[in-house]
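Q: Sequence in, structure out?
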Amino acid sequence: MTARLLGPFLFAALFCSACGKSLNPAGRESNAHYFLIAVNTQIPYWQTAASGFTKAASEIQVQGTVAGPSTYDPKAEQQEFRRVAQLNPAGILVSPVDPDLMKSDIDNAIAAGIPVITVDADSSGSKRLSFIGTDNYEAGRMGGEIVGRSLHGNGSVAIFSMPEQTNLNERYRGYMEILTAFPHIVVLPVVDIKGDPQIAFDQTQKLIAGKTKVDAFVCLDALGGKGVAKALDAGHVTGKAVIAMDSDPETLDWIRKGFIQGTIVQRPFTMGFVGLKMLDDLHRHKPQSLNVGWAKDPFAPVPSFVNTGVIWVDKQNLETFAHAQAVP
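A: Exactly. Output:
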């Protein structure tokens, strides 16, 4: 075919490729619809993730919807994931609080050609394409070092968690690697708060009223710290090392009041923002197949893990952090 004839044929090919598709000014399908699915969607952590997700959707002019139960309900999250998958969306970000429960649903979505990326919590045994979030093991090690220094290597530690969550277990593993190196630090049995700060409050009251002295309280999720601090305040108990997680406004207030020493802050905004852009790129540049085990593929088009990092926030940098957080 001559160069003179190629021009019209190329134009016709480009025109036909857009037939049936509504394109926005950015050249993307305006009906491309992405979802972010989590639990406890009304808490500040997930609202921050949602703001990153929707900002990315606005920038690239696609649809982005946040879905999932407003309470800690892994079964309801599974049902919401199944509902969304039936809509055949352009892609799904999901935080699988029960990775075993969600594994087959993630695999089914991948098999159906729907890109799925996990954020915050991973399901590494599934066929998800990538995980965007914190290196939770290293975050736990950071917290363990802070506790060890705060106690000067001597005392007892109560840890509040949700043992069914893989990401929290990784934080616990990091803490334990550091704390077990201190022969005079005793770690008490884990308290399961079941996604409810009220349980953290009640269990803290029991601990401070009991015979065993607790010198430090470690909270591995975003909800535990404020429950612990509230109980210590109500009991007029001071001088405890309390290490929280994330930047819930109440958590920051308890740092100001002196009942929380500091908090390990994740970057949920970044998780949502980067996650949607990765999904959109996969949607616009579709691989031949999603179901290829990319985690072991040296030529995978996306990384198997994107570490969004953490920030330690205490009284020294609290106001600077709060100001930066308030800037849109």
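The domain at 136-265 is CATH 3.40.50.2300 (Rossmann fold).
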